[in-house]
Protein 1
Amino acid sequence: MDIQNKWGSNAGYVVVRSGQCAALAYFWNAKHSQHERGFGTGKAESADAASNIALRDARNQIAFGGNTKLVRYDCQK
């Protein structure tokens, strides 16, 4: 599984790939980011799993409020 991420103090994103599928999740308006914590430790076996991991990892970065959204979900045939 390939995970790309970029975290700031109150916004960031994570991309998780599984085979030909990818999921992108991001967070914003966070009062505090936990970007020093570990993330992306799961293995995506399917497109659904990739989406779940992306959302989980984005949500895990928010300590005190904020928003998360799954914004992209692609599977190349």
Protein 2
Amino acid sequence: MRFPELKYYICLTLINLFCLFEADLNFLNKIMPLSQVKEKLKNSKDASSLSLRMSLEINDESFEAVEQILYELPKSKGWLNAPCILYTIKKVKEAFLAQKIDAKALDKLIYAYIYFLDNFEKEDRWFSRLYNVNLIQGLVEILHLYYYLPEWIKKDLIEATIRVYGLCPEFWRLYKLNNLKISELEISFNRFNNIANFWEKDSSEEQDTYYLNLYLDLIFFKRYNNVDVYQILREILIYILSNKSLKMEIKKLYLSLLDNYEDLVGILSHPLIDEETYNELISTYHSKLPGEILKLYPVPKSSYQEGLLELGKRILNEEFDYAVKLADSLLYSTSFSLEDSLIAVDFLNYYAITTKNELLLERVLSKLITMLEGISAQNPLLLSILYRIFNSENLNSKNLDAYLIMIEDMVKEKLGGEYLDLIEFTKNNPHPFLKDNYFSDTLVVVYSCQKNLSTRIKTIKETWLKDLEKYKIPYIICVGGSEKLELKDNVLYLPVPDEYEFLPQKSLALYEWVFYNTQFMYVYKIDDDSLLNAEWFFSILSYRKHNYYGRIVKRNIGGTDRSWHQQKSKNILYRTKIDKSYEPSVYAEGSTGYSLSRIAIDKLIKIRKSEIGQIIE
């Protein structure tokens, strides 16, 4: 890279930093004339270049150029330098108060900023672009000029504020922090508080009156086309529809706020909705629900998928006689791959050891020996099978000794001593799983935080966690914010912060606890705002074949939204710090839940302890 090019890129890096700390951009002229930087940026139309150039234009008091860029930005692609946007708006405000810009030019810039906020593309970056704290503060800065504006602009500015940020907690926090008191917004603020306090409402208030007032608050924001009203409405609807003491007329009144009746299908599938409400609403809205949603068309499955699903159902319901016959037929089927047949071996191995059926176990071990040569060392089913074999107290028969010696020798030769060391290490851990239940080697972990223990966790304990108890599948609730590591009443308290920005530390602490303190072969992680269909998930058996089982997110260069975490974070550093992850990237998508095998957890811990792992952490 030539020296002038290097100076150019150094300037680009520093512009955003200078804007963040409101430093004098003219200092950068010592590196390279900013007029040259601005000219080069004019050749680029990506969001990063446009937002950087906008700060240089305002530095030169080129107000028309700033206005033009604000109209171009919403449709642009790539990373948005939000501190440059806020810097520009603050400079516009300063220029107006110093009478360097007239009212007409200010009006144009305000409308350009409203357009900018209103017209983000509905893409992956839309949410965090719109809720970036710098962009919110930008609107707050404009509201400081409210009483200088003509009436028609005041009206449009108020409408835009309610439409874009009327249900955004961060906006109202900054509104109060800046001591803004705009009478036209105070009504919106009060309505926002009514909705925000829904979860903590005074139970002594007359119920029908309260819900009618809340309905009017939602109607208010809906009329302004607020971007968040439907998301909040769906959350509130779950609680309203599950309230057995609330009149059906009020429930239907809230449902009338839905414009898309497809949303009703998702709401009615929630486990809290009682049967009486469900039947009444289906009867009422049957004609409005799309036919393709009412009809569940079966998806064609292969004989392999059907066979495994049937096997999983029989195992889950402890119909073992049928399950053994089915697994036997799958074991010797020529239509299944070697690794797929290993599921049948895994179950038959469990069943033979549990019931002390030596003849069956002899057949299973014999089959395993023929399969070992072609099985990958990373196959989690193999570890599950070998762990049960080498950790069983039921294998005392001399008839089985030869098989066990042969298997141990083949494992050492093919997989190495580390594999057996992992088995031996795991055997010595506390918290063994129940040997008499096939699925008890899988631990379900519900990610939560201490403040949700009396709310969300209480709800799921009354709903889908009961299914886990029914099928004898172990689970724990994982929270942070504890002074010491402690497992109490199925709640694992971790000595890590409980805030959103520390989720990576919470995950690492969890998996280290599992690895060093339990004997589980699999861990399924799910958030406390999600629903696990335990019967379906465990019946299909697929998770047992994979070290990682879940969704995978792929981000190409420029595809990472580097401010997504800001709105969710509590720490001031993380509310302004950008995500510096490498691109392109591939990572686990945690929102829908995923499972890790013990092999994967072992790898994770080793990488964390490695030199590169310590650098990343």
Protein 3
Amino acid sequence: MTYYAVRRFIRKFDNYASQKKKEYTPRLYGAQFDHIKSVIENSYSRDSSTTCKEIANTLRMQNIHISASQIQRYRCNIGFKRTTTKYCHTIREQNKVARVVFAQDMIARNESFYDCIFTDECTVQRYARLVQDNAPPHISAFTRQKLQDWNVEVLKWPAESPDLNPIELVWGNMKTFIRRRKVRTLPELKSTILEYWENLTPEICEKYINGVKKRLRRVVKRGGGNIIEGRETSSDFEDYAAEENEEV
């Protein structure tokens, strides 16, 4: 290769690198971009929780066949960003200490919670321990006395700690399931709740219960403060792995 060929190549590369990157517009859908953009904007104006797959299905019914990943790229170009709403409950300072003590105690005992019934309302049998929140009806003198008379063992739960109770995940997912169905009438609401309940498998419940140990560790790490359900950070995973290796 000659000197001049190398110089032409370098100049061509420098010119390419200095050019501003063009906005992503697939050639196949370039002529239909305005319509696709309009469908995306209208979909999110009606329902901000609309998924890319749902938008792709809408376009498919209009004879525009486009994948969900391409919709995602269009969405980013338009300016929409995917975010998750975070809900946190208030925890007073004295209860943060109680949460840390409870979490450390459960971790030290290697508690599996397999013999616990997590509940707001339920019937109880003798082979299990009852786990309930600290709502006034649950901690009243009458309730405590009745549970004692019935020989029901109650696992003392820290106050302001619904984020540790796996049944709250059930309720949260049920509400999401109902919201996505966009129910409008009471019969629709009842049928949707029953449908969710019928599809709630023991495997799903076991997954929620197995996750309690991770949430306990996060409570300790955050000094008893709020933990936000969802994706843990990489440092969380490193801490979990180190602790599990120590246990082994």
Protein 4
Amino acid sequence: MEESVSNVSYGSASGSYIIPEILYEDEGTQEDRVDSLNEESLVTTTQSNLSTSDESLYSDEYYTGHRHIKRKRQKGFKNNGSYTLSCEWKNCTFQSTCVDSFQLHVSYHIPQLELRPKDDDEEMYGCLWDFCDFETENTEEAQRHVNYHAHHTNLKAIGREISVQWKLPKCGFGTEFKNILPDVTEPYFCDWLDCGKKFNNLLNYRYHIANHVHNYPVTFKTERCMWRGCRRTFDLKFCLKVHMGSHTKEKACACPTCGGTFASHSKFRDHCFRSTEG
């Protein structure tokens, strides 16, 4: 089932709000969705723990553009999942140490998107996340945007943990753009074999892809990527799981100061050093 929204608007002291009645991709009750997410997360636990510590050895040189700086060889980041995720929606103080619970909580803010008038008598959905000025006329794009805030918060928390473990210098950029997100104008499409499902929730999308890999029968000596147009093969299923990140545009972490996202922990490390150069 694909997501759909029917709208009911309500007035408030601070303006009118749009209340989408959301029908999620997964069938069943909201409680069923939580149970399903928790079960699916078990599939990706090993992948998550391994993929966050796969950069065990980095170059001992850092190139600034003018000179090479020698540094101690960096140990890999160990993600023990002990960090706290804080919701930054207007007037919300919710916190959680569980990514699934946090994502579900943030999705509850979708009905609170502010309805803002335009000059041509049309209205826009306005995001109420701190330091975010996102607006759109498209209901599904608004859903994807709010859901991405939850994912981005988790990436920033990972970046914060990396900064502590590796004793990185604080990013020298400002915080005014820390919650400005890239536009997600299209749903997340699954191109595994003939699947074709689409999602407006990145976490659900990632779990869905992980289940494809986990449930794919081992009938060959090598693991084959079944993504449309891809012919890569791997000796280990774990390597295939890591490879899938290239198809889903996976990000490893984000800067907790400026909000920039990075494909690897080493790129975030380099960002911290470059941003503090005079």
